[in-house]
Amino acid sequence: MAEAYIVGAVRTPVGTKKGALAGVHSADLGAHVLKSLVERTGIDPSAVEDVIMGCVMQVGMQTLDIARTAWLSAGLPESVPGVTIDRQCGSSQQSIHFAAQGVLSGTQDLVIAAGVENMAAVPMGASVPFTADGAVAGFPYGEGWGERYGKQEISQFRGAELMAEKWGLSREDLEAFALESNIRAGKAIEAGYFDREIAPIAGVERDQCARPDTTLEKMAGLKPLREGGVITAAVSSQIAVGASALLIASEEAVRTHGLTPRARIHTLALAGSDPVYMLTGPIPATEKALKKSGLKMDDIDVTEINEAFAPVVLGWQKELGADLAKVNPNGGAIALGHPLGATGGILMAKLLHELERTGGRYGLQTMCEGGGQANATIIERL
């Protein structure tokens, strides 16, 4: 059976919406991680067969197939093509899936999976059109969609509130989780756990978003994002800037190019879920991945699940029975930021390096995505 290996994984530091990375062109952010990946792995860049880059808001500086423009901006061979994909927040996790599938199919040997998003320069929602009455123009409110779901609000913020209600999560529960995320992130940054995976840029060497000095008292003083709700900015992922890139290689490429595989892609899974709840997809995606892999949750040494909102992780944990000590051990997007299209690759870089740091064998990555979807990926450290 063919294998797909992760040979390299690199990311930028994750910057704040007003920090030093905010002024970096998205193509240059992508170029930086692509060039860094080539340098770190020692691969001949002309041997790369495709660059698959996730990006959600494909407007402004992030349009015109940013996978291609980022590769060219890095000064890399023009013979290598690129394609940009959008699976919402899971875009660069999907780029890993597509790259792995190309290798597993035997049709490709070396593929780069990447992601980029500058949410400071291209705001969230920039590519979402609205009608005069405020409805999202992309939803077909007539036949099909309209008959099934009606003309109701469809948003991640409402979905987070619905999840909190469904799983009986109080504001205090969510804030305790968010505090722990920030504490873990602060400790990890201070200990240098992320240093090996980060390629410094624009004078920034470490992640910028973490708030390890926050307190439950500070969180309690914030207004909810919706009147009468439990979701506040403190329990939500932060608007951020970043990029990520991974090199996926076949056994033949490993031999031919003298590469060192660091992990193998063990299992790939996808799931759709209720588009109104929107954020519950990691639950069925994880269940599918575990079933396909023959593993149990207890077999997973490290899990990275995107902290779009605290209820996403806590609702998932209640359904899967996961040990939260092994979930986002170095903090998550509540503390470290969520640069949309880049986050999937960022989480995979964190997962790989944490398995290497701790000696763990199996790692799981999953994340909720717009429209009620999720990816789940299991890797095995080598």
From TrEMBL:
Superkingdom field: Bacteria
Residue ranges of every copy of the Thiolase C-terminal domain listed in the record: 260-381
UniProt-recorded Gene Ontology molecular function terms: acyltransferase activity, transferring groups other than amino-acyl groups
Ranges of residues in domain Thiolase N-terminal: 5-252
One family name in Pfam for this protein: Thiolase_C
Keywords: Acyltransferase, Transferase
Residue positions of the active site: 89, 338, 368
InterPro entries xrefs: Thiolase, Thiolase-like, Thiolase_C, Thiolase_CS, Thiolase_N
Family of this protein: Belongs to the thiolase-like superfamily. Thiolase family.
Cited NCBIfam families: AcCoA-C-Actrans, PRK07801.1
Name of the protein in question: Acetyl-CoA C-acetyltransferase
Organism: Actinocorallia herbida
